[in-house]
Design brief:
By secondary structure, the chain is α/β, with parallel strands linked by helices. It is built from 15 helices and 10 strands. Helix 8 runs antiparallel to helix 9 and helix 14 runs antiparallel to helix 15. The longest helix has 21 residues. The structure holds zinc ion.
Length: 350
């Protein structure tokens, strides 16, 4: 199995001003540029300066409004052959879109997230719409990840909370993976577990968990990159995604107003870690409190009935994927917990 790892990594304040320089260094001088919806107006001027000064030629430019695979096919085949690399600027949608184009055309993609709501900006998968249904597909892991931490700091705080929720879930994901080995002998990739565990522990052990702190943001970005790399190393989503992700995916399908991926995942991680008797349950609680995640969610609760329905539906989300929720009695146990635990009750509302 061939493993690719992001080669170009720049995570620092004002990195966007130097994007042209970074691209030239890698000898990508003719690029296709893709903006997320509404972002062209915000960054066009800044990018023109950095591209012009490094003599980067924009041979294709587009704004991505959809994640339908039919659109991606069309765009991929209309991309000029002279394009040496594609650059995706924005959130999950444009990055997933471009990762799939890169996968189809076998060209490098540079991901430039403007918020860090999940680990998708450095992962080898893409969440796309196929025949109107959301699907997780294999795509290309980015060749480069460039994150301007000043832009992340200015992004709405719920995006960063979402990234924190996605990151803390490595504890429960790894636990489920190991349980799948014990119960079903599913092989575990120890190196992927190491990367994933180190990623979350890096965040946990950082003292000043202030989402306005550029150094903390840089660290979270790096940890999310490692989470993406762990998936590439194992060739599966296992090191980054377990029962807590199943609940979040189910919630996306059930809820009228789903929240952000990592917000749902973070809430589910807290609950599932209790069910797993995960030794990190208290750590998870502490970190979610220290970062302000709990405070944010208690003011922007998930819907209780939808969350309970999501727990019930979660085991059906992925075929042949053992987690703590595969044991029927555990579903009931978790629902009881969600309904009665006073602390957890702060995170959900009628
Ligand atoms: Zn996730």
């Amino acid at each position: 199995m061939e493993i690719s790892i992001p080669t170009l990594l720049r995570i620092k304040p004002n990195a966007l001003y130097k994007l042209g320089k970074y691209l030239r260094k890698e000898q990508f001088v003719r690029i296709g540029l893709f903006y997320g919806s509404g972002l062209k107006e915000m960054f066009e001027e800044q990018l023109k300066i950095t591209f012009d000064s490094s003599e980067i030629e924009l041979v294709y430019e587009d704004v991505v409004e959809t994640n339908a695979i039919e659109e991606i096919y069309k765009t991929a085949y209309s991309l000029p052959e002279t394009v040496q690399a594609i650059v995706a600027i924005g959130g999950g949608k444009v990055i997933d879109y471009c990762k799939y184009i890169a996968f189809m055309l076998q060209i490098p993609i540079i991901s430039v997230p403007t918020s860090i709501s999940n680990d998708g900006f450095a992962s080898p998968g893409a969440s796309l719409f196929v025949n109107g249904k959301r699907k997780s597909l294999k795509a290309k892991i980015p060749f480069g990840v460039v994150i301007d931490t000043e832009i992340i700091r200015k992004s709405p705080s719920y995006y960063t909370y979402s990234g924190i929720g996605d990151l803390i879930s490595k504890y429960t994901a790894v636990y489920d993976w190991k349980a799948a080995y014990r119960v079903r002998q599913e092989p575990v990739n120890d190196f992927a577990v190491l990367i994933s565990t180190n990623a979350v522990e890096n965040m946990v052990n950082y003292k000043n968990k202030d989402i306005e702190d550029l150094e903390f943001l840089r660290l979270i970005c790096g940890c999310l990159v490692m989470s993406g790399v762990a998936m590439e190393v194992s060739g599966s989503s296992r090191p980054a995604s377990g029962s807590e992700h199943l609940i979040s995916h189910a919630y996306d399908m059930i809820a009228q107003k789903p929240s952000l991926h990592g917000i749902q995942v973070g809430v589910a991680t807290y609950a599932v870690s209790w069910l797993q008797k995960n030794p990190e349950h208290q750590t998870i609680k502490r970190v979610l409190e220290e970062t302000g995640f709990i405070d944010y969610v208690s003011k922007n609760c998930l819907k209780k009935s939808d969350f309970i329905d999501a727990i019930k539906f979660a085991p059906n989300i992925k075929h042949n994927f053992y987690t703590v929720l595969s044991e029927r009695e555990n579903i009931k146990k978790l629902i009881d917990y969600v309904e009665t635990d006073e602390y957890f009750g702060k995170l959900i509302a009628e």
